[in-house]
Amino acid sequence: MADVKVKVQPPDADPVEIENRIIELCHQFPHGITDQVIQNEMPHIEAQQRAVAINRLLSMGQLDLLRSNTGLLYRIKDSQNAGPVSFFLSKMKGSDNQEKLVYQIIEDAGNKGIWSRDIRYKSNLPLTEINKILKNLESKKLIKAVKSVAASKKKVYMLYNLQPDRSVTGGAWYSDQDFESEFVEVLNQQCFKFLQTKAETARESKQNPMIQRNSSFASSHEVWKYICELGISKVELSMEDIETILNTLIYDGKVEMTIIAAKEGTVGSVDGHMKLYRAVNPIIPPTGLVRAPCGLCPVFDDCHEGGEISPSNCIYMTEWLEF
Amino acid sequence: MTQAEIKLCSLLLQEHFGEIVEKIGVHLIRTGSQPLRVIAHDTGTSLDQVKKALCVLIQHNLVIYQVHKRGVVEYEAQCSRVLRMLRYPRYIYTAKTLYSDTGELIVEELLLNGKMTMSAVVKKVADRLTETMEDGKTMDYAEVSNTFMRLADTHFVQRCPWVPATENSDPGPLPPAPILVISEKDMYLVPKLSLIGKGKRRRSSDEDATGEPKAKRSKHSTDNKEPIPDDGIYWQANLDRFHQHFRDQAIVSAVANRMDQFTFQTQTSSEIVRTMLRMSEITTPSAAPFTQPLSSNEIFRSLPVGYNISKQVLDQYLTLLADDPLEFVGKSGDSGGGMYVINLHKALGSLATATLESVVQERFGSRCARIFRLVLQKKHLEQKQVEDFAMIPAKEAKDMLYKMLSGNFISLQEIPKTPDHAPSRTFYLYTVNILSAARMLLHRCYKSIANLIERRQFETKENKRLLEKSQRVEAIIASMQATGAEEAQLQEIEEMITAPERQQLETLKRNVNKLDASEIQVDETIFLLESYIESTMKRQ
């Protein structure tokens, strides 16, 4: 009898079985499993078969390959992420891995978008390739380019259906990358007028000083309501927007702010406190130096007796004296 | 001493005392303390003249002397004291508001003469007041002495240091320069003088002449041949006290501007603050950062008569003042109905900051002022943050920041990310350093006043011929009036000055007044900035 070498086929050697086992393991450890864990679970599988199975799972997009400080980790892709990828896969069956890689990088950037140079760093692909791929993806309507408001030449890429983040478009004050200064000015003046009239009515009411002072304050919520009712803004403004406008009034020195503790339930309170604003007057009149022409003179440093510009022949003084 | 200060001192000394004093004074300011012979040698003036000039300067408290080792006496000029001469009109005006004409004249005499005895001041002031009164009335010495004593009680005038009486009968060699001492309690002690008399007109009122030629001055008879009772006791104006008063005024008006817009009884908050400051006048030293705590009951008792607000309302006002974001008034305890202090250092800081803001606003525009206040409040900001907070487009914001940077109102703070300080990898933060900005502005003020004085002198010099002519004409008219000339002759003389010349004279007078007023206004700014800088340096 000849020896028949029987290759004992280990059980679970079926590739599909291996993959399913690996997927089960991944579900057991949602944070990821290392190669070592798989090896422990299925000690009878050879390294090559294991590698094949893992590669298949990766290319099918069911596993994520991550690097940790101990080594490589395989993690199950959760169903949300799996969605667009399968959609993507169904769309572009024939595209190469590079495009997939680029797409993944852009996706990871979320709604802040990513710059083309950053894509190059992350993917290590040459610039020409990147540009080709980006054009491809754009024509397929998978990604879009958004101009950033911070640097107008820079274009960031993000997924087609995502809303760009506030920091990129600038929020309510920017319309198409342009800062709307007149809009801000108008809002500025309206808020100030509102606070001024409130303070005046408080002054006219002639009651005891505590009540007068308290009634001359307006909370940010009141101002917000007033501005919304005024209807001068096409864009909907939130209370934070109004607060930034009121802050500019504070920096103009026309308004002062106090913060008081408010109960949670009261209208307009945020985290247990409210911001109150009040119109005020400056504490000193324009100071003495600026009433003389020297205070505002643009050539002050060049002026000295006997020179081209001197107090004796100063034209600013002559004009000022003729007033 | 910066160049601007030295220039200003030289202009002031020249205007008030003349060329020689100016030369000596400026030399001393430039070179510090020097002995007599070195001064004479370096300035090239004779010893006699140097001595006279130094006498004048010492009399006016502008130069002090010290005995150094080996018996050498050195003289040192006090530049800051020379600059106070700009403020003389303000001191005199304050005395007028507080003590009416009598006080005004007393302070004026003291300032113009440096040091005087009380009896000399009283006599002179009484004479001057009598001249302005109607015929037949005279000013009594007692009234003037009264005002003088009140000035001394409120510390507006003080005694000069004197040579102490030596106890031992054996005098020994006289020291090269007398050592002057004064003790705190003697400073405001008025000697018991019985000054009896009335002010005299320049001419006795018995004569029946209608007018008096200005050119002729008749000597008034001096009947007091007896020795002056308070010889050796000299008085001078106490400038620190005036400064304290100005500071209080500034604080009260700041409170009035901020708080009294919202109260129905006008000026109540500022009245309360004024009362508190008045109560702390004597008790708090002028350089203290806080006044003494005052209880609400005391304040209520000390309110001026005529302010009938109830205690409750007063308490409400005090609470409002203490809670205000200005932080001028603070509550330091609850005894006696609530103890309140006035935060002097903070008040001066706020006033100096407001001055800086006002200059930025007038010079660069209100948007720049917005950025300036923003950086002041937030202390350190990046370029991007400035644009976001101030809601100003990036290009304009950058332009404004650079303008203010080159004007030295704002400075840059570099924070490197890498040790090689590469510009692309460093944070650049904008910040405002109030002390250095205040100093810069102060320097600019000095130069501005120097410019204004120069312009005023230039204008006067330009029209010198015209001024001399008009003076001659006036003298002629006056003399003709005294000798009883006719109307027609007077008219003829007056017409020597043509109409356009008259206009020119009018313009000149107006311009000179304007420049003068402007000097005083810039001096107000100087006062605020100097007080702030002094208060900050004392705390360090």
Automatic annotation (TrEMBL), chain A:
Classify the main location. Answer: nucleus
Q: Which UniProt keywords apply?
A: DNA-directed RNA polymerase, Nucleus, Transcription
| Transcription listed as a keyword | yes
Quote the InterPro entries the UniProt record gives: RNA_pol_Rpc34, RNA_pol_Rpc34-like, WH-like_DNA-bd_sf, WH_DNA-bd_sf
Q: Where in the cell is it found?
A: Nucleus
SUBUNIT field? Component of the RNA polymerase III complex consisting of 17 subunits: a ten-subunit horseshoe-shaped catalytic core composed of POLR3A/RPC1, POLR3B/RPC2, POLR1C/RPAC1, POLR1D/RPAC2, POLR3K/RPC10, POLR2E/RPABC1, POLR2F/RPABC2, POLR2H/RPABC3, POLR2K/RPABC4 and POLR2L/RPABC5; a mobile stalk composed of two subunits POLR3H/RPC8 and CRCP/RPC9, protruding from the core and functioning primarily in transcription initiation; and additional subunits homologous to general transcription factors of the RNA polymerase II machinery, POLR3C/RPC3-POLR3F/RPC6-POLR3G/RPC7 heterotrimer required for transcription initiation and POLR3D/RPC4-POLR3E/RPC5 heterodimer involved in both transcription initiation and termination.
Protein name stated in the entry: DNA-directed RNA polymerase III subunit RPC6
Q: What is the lineage of its organism?
A: Eukaryota, Metazoa, Chordata, Craniata, Vertebrata
From TrEMBL, chain B:
Ranges annotated as biased composition (Basic and acidic residues):
211-228
Instruction: Identify the keywords attached in UniProt to this record, alphabetized.
Output: DNA-directed RNA polymerase, Nucleus, Transcription
Q: Where is the signal peptide?
A: none
Q: What taxonomic lineage is listed for the species of origin?
A: Eukaryota, Metazoa, Chordata, Craniata, Vertebrata
- Assembly notes: Component of the RNA polymerase III (Pol III) complex consisting of 17 subunits. Component of the RNA polymerase III complex consisting of 17 subunits: a ten-subunit horseshoe-shaped catalytic core composed of POLR3A/RPC1, POLR3B/RPC2, POLR1C/RPAC1, POLR1D/RPAC2, POLR3K/RPC10, POLR2E/RPABC1, POLR2F/RPABC2, POLR2H/RPABC3, POLR2K/RPABC4 and POLR2L/RPABC5; a mobile stalk composed of two subunits POLR3H/RPC8 and CRCP/RPC9, protruding from the core and functioning primarily in transcription initiation; and additional subunits homologous to general transcription factors of the RNA polymerase II machinery, POLR3C/RPC3-POLR3F/RPC6-POLR3G/RPC7 heterotrimer required for transcription initiation and POLR3D/RPC4-POLR3E/RPC5 heterodimer involved in both transcription initiation and termination.
Q: Which family does it belong to?
A: Belongs to the eukaryotic RPC3/POLR3C RNA polymerase subunit family.
Q: Which InterPro entries match?
A: POLR3C_WHD, RNA_pol_III_RPC82-rel_HTH, RNA_pol_III_Rpc82_C, RPC3, WH-like_DNA-bd_sf
Q: Which PANTHER family match?
A: DNA-DIRECTED RNA POLYMERASE III SUBUNIT RPC3 (PTHR12949:SF0), RNA POLYMERASE III DNA DIRECTED -RELATED (PTHR12949)
Record's Gene3D superfamilies? 6.10.140.1450, Winged helix-like DNA-binding domain superfamily/Winged helix DNA-binding domain (1.10.10.10)
Domain (RNA polymerase III subunit RPC82-related helix-turn-helix): give its ranges: 7-66
GO biological process: one example: DNA-templated transcription
User: What name is this protein filed under?
Assistant: DNA-directed RNA polymerase III subunit RPC3
Q: Tell me the GO molecular function terms.
A: single-stranded DNA binding
Q: Where is this region: Disordered?
A: 199-230
A Pfam family the protein falls into: RPC3_helical
Show the GO cellular component annotation of the record: RNA polymerase III complex
Q: Where in the cell is it found?
A: Nucleus
Domain RNA polymerase III Rpc82 C -terminal: start-end pairs: 146-350
Q: What role is this protein assigned?
A: DNA-dependent RNA polymerase catalyzes the transcription of DNA into RNA using the four ribonucleoside triphosphates as substrates. Specific core component of RNA polymerase III which synthesizes small RNAs, such as 5S rRNA and tRNAs.
Domain DNA-directed RNA polymerase III subunit RPC3 winged-helix intervals: 356-432
